[in-house]
Design brief:
By secondary structure, the chain is an alpha+beta fold. The chain has 5 helices and 11 strands. The relative contact order is 0.19. It binds the ligand Nc1nc2c(c(=O)[nH]1)N[C@H]1C(S)=C(S)[C@@H](COP(=O)(O)O)O[C@H]1N2 and molybdenum atom (MO).
């Protein structure tokens, strides 16, 4: 059977070659990728908001966020620039525990993730409802490092990793879809890596 070089490496490392999405290669390191600078954050003034099409908008301090129920997921991450990393363990808060507090209106169908410095990414609300999506503050048992999004990032394993906003400060619920930062630059709106939805041009 024909295997690409990237698939042969996955096989040699003991994984099923099918686990690598089309056009990706496996890396053991965890590359750092973003536009702009790593922001400086003061946890004393930091907050996290859930707002928009909800019955009860929410603003949480760092301590309040950390007091919410937490959960762990293990995710494969796939960057549109073609690197994939298997089995990163993330800990954080699942959408259901935020949703139960804000109570989304029936009109809420899309979300915009708001990060520091105006970075945004857009998703259908179902992408956050998925069992493996998380608002994460730990990776592989340690607090996120500043360049991977400390103190908080989104993790949406079902999409290319640009949807997973680092330095997350809020989630806005919307009745309509609103393209985020990379999506406005021509990245694909859906970003399903199984279908190689990389760019919209
Ligand atoms: N705030 C912010 N989040 C971001 C980005 C960004 O530019 N700004 N880039 C995205 C992209 S393109 C990728 S691949 C991942 C990279 O995350 P990592 O640096 O932890 O690997 O972050 C995503 N989240
Ligand atoms: Mo990316």
């Amino acid at each position: 059977m024909f295997r690409t070089k990237a698939e042969k490496k996955v096989l040699e490392m003991g994984y099923a070659p099918e686990r690598l999405p089309p056009g990706q290669y496996l890396t053991e390191k965890w590359p750092v990728l973003h536009a702009g600078e790593v922001p400086t954050t003061d946890l004393a003034t930091w907050d996290f908001r859930v707002f928009g099409e909800v019955e009860q908008p929410l603003r949480l301090t760092w301590e309040e966020l950390r007091a919410l129920p937490d959960q762990e997921i293990v995710a494969d991450i796939h960057c549109v620039t073609r690197w994939s990393r298997f089995d990163t363990r993330f800990r954080g808060v699942h959408w259901r525990d935020l949703s139960e507090r804000v109570r989304p209106l029936p009109s809420a169908r899309y979300v915009v993730a708001h990060a520091e410095q105006g970075f945004t990414s857009n998703l259908p609300l179902e992408a956050l409802e998925a069992a493996d999506a998380l608002v994460a503050y730990e990776a592989d048992g340690e607090p996120l490092t500043p360049d991977h999004g400390w103190p908080l990032r989104l993790v949406v394993p079902s999409r290319y990793f640009w949807k997973s906003a680092k330095w997350l400060r809020g989630i806005e619920l919307l009745s309509h879809d609103q393209p985020g930062f990379w999506e406005r630059y021509g990245y694909h709106n859906e970003a399903d890596y199984r279908k190689e939805e990389r760019y919209s041009f």
